C-alpha cells in the first residue's frame, strides 16, 4: 500500500548536513545568529535535503479541492458551488493564490479530489475519490478506504511535482464549509471543546457561528474519533481535500522536500500527517498565523512557529506562497555571503578574544 510505504520512507533529518550548514553560517561576515529565523530555516533545509548548502529551484503550490456534506447543516453562508467555480480562477492567475504564486515564481497545481460538481476546466487534475465528503453531523465523512485513497492522491501528486523538478512545495485548499471539519479535527486531537476551536470561517454571522459550534459538538459525539489514530479522525470528521493535503505533506517528507503549510485547513491536514508519521513535522514550515480562531492551537500542537503574521485568512495557499521568498532567501545567505576569511575581514569573535 502506497500510504504505508510512504510513511515508512520518512527519515530523521540529516544531522551532519545541519552541522555543516551551521558551521558555514557561523563563519560568515556577521555576528553569530544575527540573521535570526533565516538561519534556522536554512539549517533545517540542510537537514531535510541532506545538502549542507541547499538550493531552492522549482517551486509548486498544490491546491486540493473538495466539498463537504456538512454544509447542509447551515455552517456556511457561501454556496457550495463556489468550490468548483473558483478552480479556474486559480489556474488563470486572477485569484489571490494565482497572483502570489506568480510573484513567488511557483506553478499552481489544482487537484479535484472531491468536488461535488463535475469540474472539466483544462488543467485541473481529475483525481476525485468521491463527490464530496459525508455530513459529519450525521455520520463519518469518509470510509477508511476512501480516506486512504485520498491520502494516496496527495502522495502521488507530490511525487509527480517533485519528479518534475519541484524542490519546495506549498499546500493550499478549496472547499466551502471546510473550516467545520478542520475545527473538529483540532478538537479531536487536542481535546478541545467546540467553542475553543470554532472560528467564523467565510462571512459567518453570529447565528451561523452558533450553528457551527453545535454541529462540531454533534459530529464529535456521534463519530467518537480516536485521537490516537490519525486515520480514524480523518475518516470520521475530516474531508477529502484535507486527506489529500496530508498526503502531499507525507509524500514531500518521504522525498526529503520541504513543504510550506498555509492556514487553518492545511494545518488540520498537517495534524493528520503528523499523527500518521510524527517525523513528518520536521519537513514542514508554518508559513503564517491565520486570522482564523484555532490556528494558533494547531501550531502549538505541532510545535511550529509561523514565519509571518499578517492577519491573513484567505486560504488557497496564499500565506505559504508568500513565505516562499523567505525560504529561498535563507539559502542565498549560505551561497552568496562571504566568510570572514573569504572577505579578508577580522572575525568578530576572534577579535574580541584577542582584546
From TrEMBL:
GO molecular function terms attached to this record: nicotinate-nucleotide-dimethylbenzimidazole phosphoribosyltransferase activity
Family: Belongs to the CobT family.
EC number, as in UniProt: 2.4.2.21
Protein's name according to its UniProt entry: Nicotinate-nucleotide--dimethylbenzimidazole phosphoribosyltransferase
Keywords: Cobalamin biosynthesis, Glycosyltransferase, Transferase
Protein's pathway: Nucleoside biosynthesis; alpha-ribazole biosynthesis; alpha-ribazole from 5,6-dimethylbenzimidazole: step 1/2
A biological process term (GO) from this entry: cobalamin biosynthetic process
Classification via InterPro entries: Nict_dMeBzImd_PRibTrfase, Nict_dMeBzImd_PRibTrfase_bact, Nict_dMeBzImd_PRibTrfase_N, Nict_dMeBzImd_PRibTrfase_sf
Function: Catalyzes the synthesis of alpha-ribazole-5'-phosphate from nicotinate mononucleotide (NAMN) and 5,6-dimethylbenzimidazole (DMB).
Enzyme class: transferase
Active site: 316 (proton acceptor)
Record has Glycosyltransferase as a keyword: yes
Catalyzed reactions: 5,6-dimethylbenzimidazole + nicotinate beta-D-ribonucleotide = alpha-ribazole 5'-phosphate + nicotinate + H(+)
Transmembrane segments: none
Organism: Pelotomaculum propionicicum
UniProt superkingdom: Bacteria
